[in-house]
Amino acid sequence: MAISVEDSVDVLSGVGPKRLQALQDLGIFTIYDLLSYYPFRYDDMGERLPSQTMDGEKVTFKGVISTPPVVRRFGKRSQTVIGLLVDRENVRVTFFNQPWIAKNLEVGQEVAVYGTYNAARAAMTAIKLVPASIDGLSPIYPVSKAIKAKTVAELVEQAWGQVRGQMDNLVPKHLREKYRLLDKNEQVEYSHFPNDKIEAKAGRRSAAFEEFFLFQMRLQLIKQADQRFLGEALNYDRKAVSDFIKALPFELTNAQNRVVDEILADQASPQHMNRLLQGDVGSGKTVVAAIAMFASVTAGNQAAIMAPTEILAQQHAKGLAKLFDAAGIDLRVELLTSGLKAAQRRQILEDLENGDIDVVVGTHALVQEGVHFHHLGVAVIDEQHRFGVKQRAKLREGGVNPDILAMTATPIPRTLAITAYGEMEVSVIDELPAGRKKIITKQLPNRQYDQALAMLKEELAKGAQAYIVTPLIEESESLDVQNVTAVYQDLQDELQEYTVGLLHGRLPKEDKDALMAGFSDNQVQVLVSTTVIEVGVDVPNASIMLILDADRFGLAQLHQLRGRVGRGDRQSYTILLADPKTEYGKERLQALVDTTDGFELAQKDLELRGSGDILGTKQAGVPEFQVGDPVKDLTMLTIAQEEALNLVREDGWDREEDNQALVEHLSKTMASFRHFD
Ligand code: ADP
Ligand code: MG
Prior knowledge:
By secondary structure, the chain is an alpha/beta fold. It is 40% helix and 18% strand. The strands form four sheets. It has a seven-stranded parallel beta sheet with strand order 10-11-9-12-13-8-14, with helices on both faces. The protein is globular, with a radius of gyration of 31 Å. Bound molecules: adenosine-5'-diphosphate (ADP) and magnesium ion (MG). Adenosine-5'-diphosphate (ADP) binds next to helix 9. Residues 266-429 form the Helicase ATP-binding domain. Its EC number is 5.6.2.4.
């Protein structure tokens, strides 16, 4: 029976329920998906003669079929045997468990077979038929434990044998012509079965463009839909908002003023806000969020802010309450985290739903079942790179579609921002509050720990507070705890005049809260901690940080950690203790010594790492592409974005004959996988 590209992959022989599951886990549901599952590299399977081949070697023989295929079945298993005349030698070739292959094999036909050679018996155990080619390349597919690359290759081959020529072009013709891209069927053929490297490269180029283009089409369509979606025009109390700004304990920086204007304009417009606020650590994003939330509340709405850690949520709840209090504003701010007692939680949920709470601060607990708002006007997502796309999307499902303000310090270079945030408007705070002194960063070898400690004591003597960050131990969190505890005990001896606190993720919630409160109020002067303080923590009187074994941390993480100091008027210091073993390790630390600018560091990180998971792009929410590389193929990505934008702006593009396959594909994939919020 003829199969079509829309059929489920289990129409292929060899795909039972188990394999089907394994394929689906890789995102392969249909024949189309399978053929769009491209190899990540190719093994060279250059052809050779039996006389040149050693026993047990994997090799490709090219020859003429000399005896017709004989299929023997043993239950589910089978053997298909042919004779292959290679040069002048007859090789007995056996295909295991591929009975269907017999119908592709005829006497007199020229074929190439890749397999393992058994010299003594002049036999080959075939791995696959290679489309007759001289310098054959064998595709290698990215797979899971549940399925072998070889299996995928076989299935691709089987499928392609049946639907060759049936693939519709998704990239419009004018673009294929403009950028010399392959026809879809050639693209598939060249990608899976290249005869040489040139074909493989051409296939990849077209496949990468298609991937980027489809991605950008989705983003642009989401953006368009978002803009059409009428959010609510927020009719906030301008006077109250400007009074609040005047009552702040400091003047906003120019950059803060600018982004506040951008955000308020978004909120006031009938369009729905979907804005990313980027600003380096310490640039003062929280107060901007407070203004946006307050504006929403003045119009009778509720506001929510979601933080990635309890410590940070706690800090925000206190900090916001303090800001509103100081301005004489009477608001109800509540904290909703998973650490709450059942009764408390119930009460808060009730009050949220009936509208008694104006501002709610929470962790991911905010997006759990049972959280309903009376009328959520704006949702702020702090340190948004720490949240999964799902959690972000969920916040938007809270009944009405609230305005979204996502905040991040992760300095994603603009170029990468295209992929991560293509659907969002971006505001940037590119200025630190006045009076900040540049953090001085030093790198010392581990043996100079005493010297680092002496600097720390000097600062403590001046009334400052300090952080000591202990290294990550990759194997387990409990080892991290042991490690931080050992450092803590040691420092208690060393710093007897001061109160030293110990903070790690496994402490009970009450202890964490008490400790952070103590550190905020300067009851505790020295905080020995794991990386739980990495994001957001704001104690301006803390002005020195010691990071032990600093080479164990990534550059982006070190930058975040360092951002905990330099938040007040004091000259601040970060001391990196490390004996980096690699060149990369050395350069990374040097980069931190050289600059405090997050964007510069991100760029440096990019250079040092090349590409791949830069800046922890996984963390940053940059989607992963299967074929294209958003760093190496950046130009292509940018072009794909421009062209997608041009296309969706064209009236009636989706009714044009030539674009029907594209429209159909998009509507299918956008309904089934909602990758983007
Ligand atoms: P981040 O952008 O890293 O989240 P925060 O919002 O925590 O930064 O702000 C860092 C510190 O700077 C806080 O103590 C905050 O009160 C203070 N701050 C924010 N804006 C200003 C400003 N315009 N002038 C002085 N201090 C400010
Ligand atoms: Mg912050």
